[in-house]
Every structure is written in structure tokens, then in C-alpha cells.
Amino acid sequence: MIIAASILYFQEDHYDDLIKLINQHKNIEITNEDKENGKMVVTIEAENNKDIEDLEEIFHNCDFIIDFTHHAFYFGDEVEKAETTGIIPDFDIKKPFTKKKIL
Amino acid sequence: MDISRRNLIKSTLAASAAAAAGLSLGCKKKEAAPTTAATETPAATTTAASASTVAVDKWVKGVCRMCGTGCSIYVGVKDGKMVAIKGNVDSKTNTKGFLCIKGMNIWKVAYHPDRLTTPLIRKNGKLEPATWDEALTLIETKFKEFHKKYGYDSVAYYGSGQCTTEESYTFNKIWKGGFGSNMMDGNPRLCMASAVAGYLSSFGSDEPAGAYEDIENAKCIFITGSNTSEAHPILFRRISSYKRQNPDVKIIVCEPRKTQTSKIADLWMPSLPGTDLAIFNGMAREIIKNDWHDKEFIARHARFTQGDGTEASTFDEYIKFIEKYTPEYVEKVTGCPAASVKQAAEWFAKSGATLSLWCMGLNQRSNGVWANNLIHNLHVITGNIGKPGADPFSLTGQPNACGGVRETGSLAHLLPGCRPVAVEPWRKYVESYWKVAEHSINPSKAINPKPGFPAVKLFSSLGGENEADKPVKAILISTTNPAQTLPNLNKFVPNIKNAFTVVIDIFPTRTAQLASVVLPASFLYEKGGVYGCSERRSFLTQKAIEPLEGTKADLWIACQIAKRMGLEKFIAWSNEEDIVKMAEMAWNDYIGCTANTEKTLAGATYKRLMESTTGVQWPCPSEDHPGTYKRYVRGMDPVFDDPKKYGYEIPEDADMFFYGRKDGKINVFMRDAEPKASEKISKEYPFLMTTGRVIEQWHTGTMTMRIPETAAAHPNSYIEIHVNDAKKLGLSQGDMVKVESVRGENVLPVRVVNMTLEGVCFVPMHDQKGARMVNFICNDVVDATSGEPDYKVSAVKITKVSGPQKVDDKFVVTKSELDSPTFS
Lengths: 103, 824
Description:
A: Alpha-Beta Plaits, about 35% strand, B: about 800 residues, Rossmann fold, 27 helices
């Protein structure tokens, strides 16, 4: 489990669309927003960075999202796992990246 | 993790993100959202304080080490472990504290099970565990033996733009002052040497006049020889964000491939690899023909030259010289449409403030210095220097290539302050400052006036004791991987193997596979140290966690070698036990040595760097000086306040003066575009291959290929081929091909694209798998001035081997493979 704090920059007149989009993802919580200036801070709970990247892609594909940037990450539990098992946490190998991998 | 703890952690991170986003008291919050510090109610403050304690014990500031940008971060530490990372909101580099995927995953490097934890000594062909004392004793014995038998130049050092400034300075002092040998160089020779020589020959002083801050002041940004979106992602975000908010700002991208960088461009100028000098001369011609040049700036600040710059010329001669570069001629030579040359020239000259950004696409060329000179030319003739948003700004490829290597003079031809070792007054000053006559173990008791060998020549001259034509017998390699990064590897791999090679690194690498001794190093956040990024900004990373058991900081290793070689008093910090104090002493020695140069960081004391959340830009002559955003401008650059102190003369009435050259003017060169030394295509080798980075990977992948996410995103190298070329060769997506030059070959999967020029192919450089290590193919011809190799232009042939095959991807050299360097 990692936790990210990220910032969404959006077109002000699409606030309701953004809320609809966020509500489709249970692992995203809104913590602060500035509706008038199109800024919102969200936290994301994810199994790994891959999950976060997938979300990023979804958000980037929306025309009303101007930017989706990450500011902070907590990975304490992952460090503990790596230290106790000697394995660097990976994502589900059955769902590999397809975006850039060619084979 | 229980829910309350999880929520508290979220609150801590969210508060920081809110500060980064500039969300303040007046912001509306959703009712369901948890309380955060950004609300700043007493209750919220208490909650945030508790949350902070739950999440981390402390936040320790530092720099990300995964590219050349120099992003500022905080490492969260809990119970002595790295558990979180966040961007530094105050940062002047990664503004608003943004981070990219490499930075976010840096903890996976620190805790990776592949970390080397024991010194290794090669015995009977196998690297076997040893104690630190055994390893250091062997190094001492061999170095002393070679010094005695073959002379002081027989033992070399090869460093890195990823060592800290304190480390590079210490090794430099040991070699040049202690051993009296300039046989030391570093991997910035492979990436930045042409930029150094470009600034020196044009301005007389290395490094840019401006800073990243110019991005948000520019009206036109000319990006050439740089895939900024992948090589400097956070800077690219800064540029694209600025463009989005200011659509009138013109972005021009000039490079052979239409990469992600050109997605934000108003104009993409394609150019066949190695030919862009014609574009730059063509733009200059258009600018002058249309009377867009800045006559006043030229009259005051330009010195037209012929040849190598020693022979003065005139503006009229310059006009005659560039006359042949008509837009139509440029199109013929480069593939860039004539109309694009005209348009780029107009925007460059008429924007009001043009910023050029470039990187390895210009530097890693046999005519790299000339390419740099021609960019400087464009800025001089249009007056685009010395005002906000206007600057020729070279981006570095590593986080401490500027601060650690250029500024400390840790290259074969330099001394601290980036001044040539061959220049007697400066050499004598450094000898005196270091007290070389008192401490050197070399009977000459002096710094050698003759430059050592630049990287390619150094590794050509490296070899075993039985090789009479190889004068360098031993080499200490720190934090870099030349057995993968040198061009034409077939030539150099045996040399590294045959010599007495000592490797300092955190992971097994291709170079470690060839080493006689391997020393396990501590990671940056386990030791701390100063990094100086592209914009002359030095920033201290503080030690956050204890080193992994068994590892040692490079600075400690340098000091142990110094002590054992009889330089205990020369390196005064070698007896210090605490690594942080050791680094502080080295830093103080360094800033004292360079205090009277324009690179001065005398005001950047360790105390100041520890307290600063932004770092300090040189020149910074005193503790009360804020650091310098713009060089060469009176009122901004402190050199103007007391030029004699720095060895310069500046007329009292000069508002802008390029003091690096005595007449205060910038050389405008007449550089022909013909890349004489670059490889040409032929009937047998009909494609031009160029190489470069991808966003998820860093250098040779020793770190990023061990991070599951980045490894998976780019698990192997491949060759990008234009769709029309693929058709001609009968290739489909994923087919396996042999890519051959006269030097070597790779077998790679094909990626068919339409974003490169026909006849041009591209291979990334990060893959460690021997059959995919592109530097077996690359050319080891170097720029005659800078000594930097030409990684960007190799003539190759491409032959289909098979249809799609399973590729042995995410390959890294493991500990168990240290004894079997098969390179296949």
C-alpha cells in the first residue's frame, strides 16, 4: 500500500464533471479544493505506482483536466515488506504495462 | 495499516500538497474530506502535528539524483528508515515541489536486496568477499607499486557527475595535488565537455549566464538536441505549464525525432543527425538578411572571429561566411523545410526574449563544440543574453556534473574553479592554497602542468602490466559504469579487465564484472553531500538514514586511500570520523580554494546550505549575498563589485560585460556545418543511428532497471525505425533485427514509428543486456576540442533476424553474475 498526495488542475467550469470522475474511484479522496481557480488536492491509496499511473492516464485523457501532478508519497509499509522479505514490491505481474512494452 | 493511522498519514501528505498548490485558508473543503493542516484551525494544526509524527519522525531535505534537473525533495524518515518522499515547495528547480516517476521510486534503490554490502577482491578470476582493510591494503599496495614502477600517471581516477562535490573535490585534490598526476577524468566528459568548451570558447567562462527562472520569462523557447520531456521531465512540465498559460509564447523544437517534447511545440524542425549546424547558420543568415539582428548589442558585445577564435574578423566577413546557408540549402543538407528555418529565425530574433535549451543532442557529437558556439552566435546577434528570459542555457545530464565536476575542475585539463591546469598563475595559486610543495608524494612537489587524458584516450591507454603500449595500469572508478557507457565498447572492455580496476558502486554493474576490486558504496541519502545543478545552484542533501551495513561513503573511501598513500595531512578531513563533518571540511576547503573565482560559493557555508531550502547560485561571495540569477549584468553579478578580486577588469561604465574574455566581448564564430569527423552513411551501412534516454530509465539502468515500475515501463532496448524504412526492409512491429556498424552489433526488437526521419533510427542507451548494449555499435570518434564522443551519429545496417521473439527483458547484472562477464 502506498499513499500519494496529488494535485489536480482543472477547468473551473467542469468542476461537476471532475467530481463525477473522482467518485468513480473509491481510492481517491478530495482533501482540499479551490473551485474558483481550478485546483484540488487529492489523496490516493494504491497497491503500487502502476495503479497510480493508470489513474494518471485516465485523468490525463479528460479534456477538462489541465494537469495531474504528484507531490508526496508514503511507502513505509512497502519498505517494511522489502526489508523483511528481501523482495522489492512489484505490481501484479499478470497485469504488465502495455503502454510501451512491445513484446 | 489501521484506518486512523492511514488517515493521519494522508492528512500529512495532503497538507504538504495543499501548500504546494497554493491552497490556503479560504479554500472550500468537501464536507467528507478529512481535516488537513491547510485549514490552519487550531484543531487542524494539532491534527496535522499528530499526523506528522505518525507518518514520519523527521523530514530531511535533499536532491533527487535520478536526472540532471536537480529537483529538491524531502525524505521522510521513521524509525531510521526512509518511508516517504515529498517535493520541496520552496524549490526553485522543481517549482511547486513536483516529482516524476523516478524520483518517487528512489526508496526502492536504497532498500534493494541487490545492494553490494561487502568489498570484493578478484582471486583466481573470481570476486571473493574481503574485509575493508584487505581491500584497501591491496589498493594501497598496487597504487604504490605502479607509482614506483610506471610513474604517477600510471594510476588514474574516473569519477562521475553523481558523486557529491565534496567527493569529487577530494579525489581531485588527491590526484592532482597529492600524486602530482592529472590522469583523472569523469563521465561528464561523455556528456557535458562540449558545452564546457562551448562556453569557454564563446564567453571565456563556463556555465550559463541565466537560470531555470528564465523559462517563465521567455517569449520564445528554442529546444534543440534535447528530448526534454524524457531526459528532464520536471523541467518539461515547467515549460509545458508555462506554454499552456501563455499560448503566445513560441516553442521551437529542433531534433531528428518528433518526440514527446515536440508535442508542445509551435514548430518542429527536423534535422538529419549531425547536420543541425547548417540550421543554426541558416537562421543567423535569415536574421541578418531581414534586419532582425540587434545592432547595438553586436557593436557592444560581439567579437567576430575566424578559425579557432584567435583571429579577429568583421561582421561583414561573418555575413559573407553564412551567405551560403540559404533556407533552400539548409533544407537540402538537413531535411528541415526552408520555411521552418525562416519561421524559426523570425521567432528567435523578434520574440523579445529567447531562451535556448540543449543537451546531449548537441554535445555528444564530433562537432559538439561548434554546435554550441553556433547557438551562442544566435543569441549574440539577436541580443538575447543578459535580460530575463534570454539565455543560451545548456542542460546537464547528471545532478552534479556542473557542481561536482566542472566547478571543482575534476577533469583531466582543469583545476578547481573550472580553470585550465595549463594556465600557470592559476596552477601556482592552487599549488599554494593546497600546500602541494609541503605534502605531495610526487618528488616534483608540484601540480603537473600537462593535462591528463580525456575519457576515451584514458580508457584507450588503460591496460595490463604486460601491455607496453598501455601506460595507465590502474584506475579507480567511482559511481559510474564505463564498461557500458563508453562508445565502441569492444575496444575498451578488455582494457578495463586487464588493468587493476577498482570500482566503487552501490550495485553490481558491467564495470564491476571486470573489476579487480569492488567497494560497496553508501547511497546519497545515507551520507549526504552537495550537488550543483545546471543553473549554478548548489544544494545540500542532508544525511537522512544510516548507511546500509557494510557500505561506506565514497568520501570515506577517498580519505582512507589518502591516508594510506601518505596524504593524511594533505587531506585534513581524512582523520575525521563523522561523515557529515568530513564533508563539511572538504566543502570548506573547496569554497576557500575557489573564493577568488567567478564560481565562488564562499558565501554558501555548510551552515547556510543546511538551513537553506533553495540552495545557492554562484557567484555568491559572502554569506549576506543572495546568490546570482544573472551573470555578466551589473547590479546582479557580484563580480562587477570587485572585478580585480577575481582577476578581471570591467570598465566602470559597463552595464553588461562578458569578463571571461579580456575585451568583455563574446566570440562569434564562423563554423562550417560539415560534420567532418562524423560517420557517413554508405551503401553497406545506409542508416544513421542515434541514441538517447527514455523517461523511466536513468543512464545504464543500474538503479532504474531495479525499480519494478520503471523496469516494466521500459524493460528492454529496441530500435525505432521509420515506417517507410520498415516496409523497405520487410519489417513488422516486434521483429528481431541485427543492427551493425563497423565496430559492433546488437540484436534488437523493432519498433516501427512515424516520428523519426526516414533513414534515421534510434536506440535507447539503458539496457544492460550485452546483445542490446548500444555502445558496442557507437562511434568512439571525439570532438577535437572537448574530447567528447559522438554517440549521436553512427552509420549502421539493419538485417532481419526473425519474427517477434521473447526478449530477456528487465535484465540487470546480479551479484551471482559478477564473475561471468559474458556481455551477450
